């Protein structure tokens, strides 16, 4: 069967496309390459379509020209800070463009949708680990766009028979164990790649944000999940959705958190390098601890975590960044 992967030239989209191809899915990538990278398109991709999701009529035409049975929707803006400063950009790119995809699906009778959501839908956690039943109260425009799409999906299932799984990510990290794919954001805002890139480019200054959180060492704690495990969860979610036609919301995390200082210590040990950094005040919207309950994903999808120990995450990311630094 053919599946369409929007944003398939991005970090998580490319890893998931590779996993889909490995599982035998005919995988079509649609990307406007505003942030996606052509070098991240995995071998075996059946077709690459360069289009912008804002062009609704063109997107509908693409659906009509292809025998698509399911959509995995990754295309999205992801920077929380930018969403505060430019909410219109985020509501347009994340919300309106998603509506365009959903309209194309309804018009062409495509009924399976895997949505790239976020832990940002929860806002400030009331308990740790965070389960799917936690109250939804996003505190930034980025998180609000994800929350709004989830609410739209409920309505579209009721009205149009669309079946969906919304996967709420915690902190995706690491790189493909084959070192064929990895993180290539510009600008890079994630902790682990910024640590490693600062070691490969001494002109690049590493900053950590917040040293007065109510945690054991004063720095924020996050739940890091290996991107390959995350990709595998998407394949399992798609297969489960097609088999059962039961829509759902599922966290993707590990049930374990690491503080910024702990990640710095692990990275120093793995790379054998001294890591220099500057401490900065916490950023607007940052919370002290974000850790997922993984129980639902494990029980419902039969999913397993193979690469999500912090050492493997950093080791694969380090191998990827060293490889790409030589290009």
**Order of the strands making up the biggest sheet:** 3-2-1-4-5-6-11
Encode the helix/strand succession as letters.
EHEEHEHHEHEEHEEEHEEHEEHH
What's the level 1 CATH class of the largest domain?
Alpha Beta
Give the termini separation: 36 Å
Quaternary state reads single chain
CATH architecture of the largest domain: 3-Layer(aba) Sandwich
Write the CATH fold name of the largest domain. Answer: Rossmann fold
Description:
Strands 3-2-1-4-5-6-11 form a seven-stranded parallel sheet, sandwiched between helices. Strands 12-9-14 form a three-stranded mixed sheet. It has a two-stranded parallel sheet with strand order 7-10. Helix 1 links the parallel strand 1 and strand 2 (26-31). Helix 8 packs across helix 10. By secondary structure, it is α/β, with parallel strands linked by helices. It is 40% helix and 18% strand. It is built from ten helices and 14 strands. It has helices spanning 11-22, 56-65, 80-85, 87-107, 141-160, 191-200, 227-244, 260-271, 295-301, 310-325, and strands at 2-6, 26-31, 47-50, 68-73, 112-118, 163-169, 171-173, 207-209, 221-222, 224-226, 248-252, 258-259, 278-280, 289-290. It folds into two domains: 2-173 and 226-252, NAD(P)-binding Rossmann-like Domain (Rossmann fold, 3-Layer(aba) Sandwich), CATH 3.40.50; 191-223 and 255-293 and 306-325, UDP-galactose 4-epimerase, domain 1, CATH 3.90.25. The model has no long low-confidence stretch (mean pLDDT 96).
């Amino acid at each position: 069967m053919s599946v369409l992967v929007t944003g398939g030239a991005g970090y998580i989209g490319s890893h998931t496309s590779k996993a889909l191809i490995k599982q035998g899915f005919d995988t079509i990538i649609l990307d406007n390459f505003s942030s996606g990278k052509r070098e991240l398109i995995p071998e075996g991709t059946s077709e690459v379509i360069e289009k912008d999701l804002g062009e609704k009529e063109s997107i509908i035409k693409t659906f009509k020209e292809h025998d698509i049975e399911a959509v995995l929707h990754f295309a999205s803006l992801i920077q929380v800070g930018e969403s505060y400063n430019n909410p219109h950009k985020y509501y347009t790119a994340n919300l309106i463009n998603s509506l365009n995809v959903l309209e194309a699906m309804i018009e062409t009778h495509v009924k399976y949708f895997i949505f790239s959501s976020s832990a940002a839908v929860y806002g400030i956690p009331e308990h740790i680990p965070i389960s799917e039943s936690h109250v939804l109260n996003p505190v930034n425009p980025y998180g609000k766009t994800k929350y709004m799409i989830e609410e739209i999906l409920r309505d579209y299932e009721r009205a149009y028979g669309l079946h969906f799984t919304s996967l709420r990510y915690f902190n995706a990290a690491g790189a493909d164990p084959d070192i064929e794919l990895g993180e290539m954001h510009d600008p890079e805002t994630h902790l682990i790649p910024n640590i490693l890139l600062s070691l490969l480019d001494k002109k690049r200054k590493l900053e950590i944000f917040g040293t007065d959180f109510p945690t054991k060492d004063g720095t924020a704690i996050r739940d890091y999940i290996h991107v390959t495990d995350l990709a595998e969860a998407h394949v399992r979610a798609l297969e489960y959705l097609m088999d059962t036609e039961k829509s759902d919301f599922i966290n993707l995390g590990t049930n374990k958190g690491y503080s910024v200082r702990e990640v710095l210590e692990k990275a120093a040990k793995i790379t054998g390098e001294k890591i220099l950094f500057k401490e900065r005040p916490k950023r607007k919207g940052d919370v002290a601890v974000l850790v997922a309950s993984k129980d639902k994903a494990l029980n419902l999808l039969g999913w397993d975590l193979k690469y999500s120990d912090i050492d493997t995450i950093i080791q694969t990311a380090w191998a990827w960044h060293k490889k790409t630094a030589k290009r």
